[in-house]
Amino acid sequence: MRYAHSNFESFVQPEKPTGIETRSAWIVGGGLAGMAAAAFLVRDARMPPSRITILEASEADGGALDGAGNARTGWLIRGGREMEEQFQCLWDLYRSIPSLEVPDASVLDEFYRLNRADPSSSPVRAMCGHGQPLPDRDSLKLTGKARREIISLILTDEEKLGGRTISDVLSEDFMRSNFWLFWRSMFAFETWHSAIEMKRYLARFVHQILGLKDLHTLKFTRFNQQESLSRPLATWLAEKGVVFRHGVRVTNVRVDTSGGTKVATRLDWLEDAKAGGVDIGRGDLVFVTNGSMVENSRWGDHHTPAPVDATIAEGSIWQLWRNIADQDPAFGRPDVFCGDTTKSRWESATVTTLDARIPALVHKVTGRDPFSGRTVTGGPITIQDSAWLMSWVVSRQPHFKGQPKGQMVAWLYGLFSDVPGNYVKKPMQDCTGEEITREWLFHMGVPADQIDDMAATGAVTHPCMMPFITAQFMPRAVGDRPKVVPDCSVNLAFLGQFAETPRDTVFTTEYSVRTAMEAVYTLLDIDRAVPEVFGSVYDIRMLLQAAAELRDGRKVPASGVVRHLSTGTEIGDLLERYGLI
After folding, report:
1. pLDDT tens across 137-150, in order?
2. Closest C-alpha to 91, from 222, 204, 219
């Protein structure tokens, strides 16, 4: 497997691997990573689809790409997906998946046309003081010390950051900045999360610094991610003949590690509470999604808090990874990620409106009609003075195909779900949907004498507690995540947010698809390169633009060395073009 630095191989049909017609593939997990692996097996390896089986514990496809509910009892989304044009592997996949919305178009075509016609931007980005825009939201407010810390972190070798946290490498100067407020609410970072992941994000998304203040660099789907991303892919796979088996909890992958190789020999599972499994031939393939951000997600309702359930039982994807890891150190250390849910959990909530009051409030705060069919918040609006550090999103409406006219769906989340709120004096994790709605309305500027009635009768809200939602950000070191294809593995690969591939960042749809592509291409020696992670950190133009943004547009006096380098040179032209001098 190799990486491509151009589009030379982007449209190549690779040669069919020898003997592919007689080989089989078993994919553990029906999330985006598992379905992407199946798609690459069909499209690029030309494995007969009927020889590909996806084993999924739940009754739904898509994993974290969810979306359910109805207009009467309320819609359900655990989260949303922020995407960008530089998700190389994601768009490589979806250029081949037919749209379910636009005739004679791919999902990529549909997504491209939508975001060209209705580009994203945030009208507010951050607010405070009961419904007021954050006064200094147009400034990142980074001191010189904080900027130097960012640069130092980007340049530090990952090996030196093993086990360290963000607060170990970035000072209070940085933490007090709007940069950190915008960054953490956009990506869900906590100060105790991994310094390695923070470094990767800063390097991977240098170009996103240009959009931190208004999120204009982000792109979004037309509907929720289940209907816009998961369903088209699952439909295409099923129509091709890929086998989906739901209600199957894989409990172990037995691996023969003798003889200097690693060969998966059997899958054990529980189906209808009965033990079962299948023997795996040396020529067959096993792809495992190890770990899950949304495992043990539990819903509450308008009158019931969402329970916290951190239990890891037999049949859990975390216990599966433990059972695999017990067989060889190369298979990673799962307890690094799932061992402390007090540091990996937060809560979200889906608000379904029942009348016009809350949509009118959103219109007032954003200046945008939520029923225009166009971008509303353009990503999260973060409430700077919220004790829960609450952010809220109203995506293009309708957010569900079955949503009736005049009904709005909003999504909220609190990064600090274990501290009392400002209006509701209890932790978010102990609140009902109605109480969470009260807290949101308080910060939106609703008069105190109207909050309770509007929360009780103007919406139905479902909270969702996710104990492992940022488990992938827990402080880690080399070897804690298994390589996508472990050294000396013959037929076993790992997929998703807890597999290790260099340079790319977890908590993205791109990471799921990249690990799937790398797994298939490596195990089958596919003669087509995987697209390289976008190299904005190596592009001097991107670095200069980001530097200007980090300085909030303040120019550098052209004196001394700067004057010498910038006079009559290409360097000077670049420095001037991007507003640094």
Report:
1. 999 999 999 999 99
2. 219
